[in-house]
Amino acid sequence: MNKTILLKNRPKGRPSTSDFAFIEEEKPAPKEGELLLKAKYVSVDPYLRGRMRDTKSYIEPFKLDEPVESGIVAEVIESNNSNFEKGDFVNGMLQWKQYQTSSGNGLNKVNKETAPLSAYLGVLGLTGITAYLGLEKIGNLKEGETLVVSGASGAVGSIVGQIGKIKGCNVIGIAGSDEKIKTIKDKFGFDEGINYKTTQDMSKALKKHCPDGIDVYFDNVGGEILDAVMNNINKYGRVINCGAISLYNESETPTGPRHEGTLIKKSVRMQGFTVRDFVKEFGPAISQLSTWLNEGKITFSETIVEGFDQIPQAFLDLFDGKNKGKMLVKVY
Ligand SMILES: NC(=O)c1ccc[n+]([C@@H]2O[C@H](COP(=O)([O-])OP(=O)(O)OC[C@H]3O[C@@H](n4cnc5c(N)ncnc54)[C@H](OP(=O)(O)O)[C@@H]3O)[C@@H](O)[C@H]2O)c1
């Protein structure tokens, strides 16, 4: 049999496991031109929360009572498509099913000899590409500048900080535990870190760690941390609005300080970033990330949860910061 995970409810506020339903179906048979895929690693990502709302976005919302989908690395079990062979591994946007058929469109072959399969959903996948292209397209980092990144020990944030160091910047990370702060400094080479959960006054803490002000802010969390960064932003500063996880479970958008004055007086550029706008540049981005990985200039962390049934819980755990680096589920 073939387990599948459906979206059962559109969550209000924080999602829970009861918003998902498990069903069992017959294992599908591939038609002419199709492949049969077996899921190996499933990526769970904060942006999936947005797809659970019935609102227009840069990507279609999930439909109720239909399978959830995310980035998945799968093995080709049967192939009726001359572009793929049994035993190939592929990466693509696939459904939360143990087995599924595919036409092969949108799938990329991945090589497990070059990198561990899980890395194609992290540092060599959308995560790494987001970090790299966010900085390239909006950050415009210059040597000697101060880069601040939130969600610093997470999948995107940990890569952002390391790229900042490659570019010769002073890099300050913001994350949610002392253990994570230690990791971003010891493993990823950040210069300093701030635990936002134990810091009373983020503005003051940023001022202390960024005595020359902040030139570039890679924002993964939004909300009050963004407000504190804006109090310390430099003239011609750049803010990359990549994510706003602190707001994803809010039903109403909370109001905060107005940033127009700062943006105008300091000629700051604040720009929303959606990695999918740059699909044509994914190839060069992966190539650069692979080079840095092979040269030992970047490294990565993963939290790998085991078992297909754990996929919804692994997703929910992102909102409690239970992951270190990329959150993945290994499916047998
Ligand atoms: N724009 C794009 O194209 C694009 C693409 C990929 C990802 N993103 C965004 O980038 C961000 C990071 O994604 P990711 O996949 O790398 O996830 P991640 O950072 O690996 O995981 C999420 C992390 O967010 C932190 N967090 C959770 N709730 C928080 C809160 N209320 N305030 C502050 N931090 C909180 C947690 O770490 P702590 O322990 O530090 O709290 C958690 O580990 C997300 O906002 C995501 O939506 C955007």
TrEMBL record:
Gene3D superfamilies: Medium-chain alcohol dehydrogenases, catalytic domain, NAD(P)-binding Rossmann-like Domain. Keywords: Oxidoreductase. It comes from the Bacteria. SMART domains: PKS_ER. Transmembrane segments: none annotated. GO terms for molecular function: oxidoreductase activity, acting on the CH-CH group of donors, NAD or NADP as acceptor. Residues 16-329 form the Enoyl reductase (ER) domain. The keyword Nucleus does not apply. Coiled coil: none annotated. Pfam families: ADH_N_2 (PF16884), ADH_zinc_N (PF00107). This is Enoyl reductase (ER) domain-containing protein. It comes from Aquimarina intermedia.
